[in-house]
Amino acid sequence: MELKNFIVDIPNYPEPGVIFRDITPILNNPVAFKTIVDQLAAYALAQQATVIIAPEARGFLFGPAVSYAANLRFIPVRKAGKLPRQVVSVKYSYEYATNQLEMHVEDLQPNDRVLIVDDVLATGGTVQAICDLVKTQQATIVGLAFVVDLTYLNGKKDLASYPIKTLIEYAA
User: How many domains does the chain have?
Assistant: First the structure.
């Protein structure tokens, strides 16, 4: 199955000159979605992950499903002010703006082995921020997994110290 066939290119969105890769058709095809979840779950198990972490919003489309398929815990990383208990937070920059991510302080333990799952690797800013959060909790990052890698944005450059799994790549 050619997974790239389930992605729609939207030119000039969210701003002129940007080609947005719309992954929502994957969600509308149970075979494509299952293929992706199964591949990422297999990677999680191969990396001996004990927990899946994913950022809102679109990381939530894949992270919990991968967690379920691999029978692993799931920890959400949210934008500032969305979590009700004590949080650890980090500010970061990404393609279009700056933001802040948070997770509950007590969710990770030092012996946890974390796989971070997200829909798209662009510049790497979001996942680098999550890596920083994980490090504050003294857990181990065993890998990063993405459905799509926009290789022309060189997001892997600053993440080279981690094992990375991508399923679909766009060179331009």
Answer: 1
Q: Which of 56, 58, 73, 113 is catalytic?
A: 58
Reported as a single tens digit per residue, the pLDDT across 52-77 is: 999 998 999 999 999 999 999 999 99
Catalytic residue among 56, 73, 95, 113: 95
- Residue 20 structure tokens: 């947005």
- Gap between the Cα atoms of 98 and 125, Å rounded: 9
In a domain, 2, yes or no: no
**pTM as predicted:** 0.94
1 within domain boundaries: no
Task: Answer yes or no: 58 catalytic.
Answer: yes
Can 2 be counted among the known catalytic residues? no
> pLDDT by residue (tens digit) across 79-98?
999 999 999 999 887 666 78
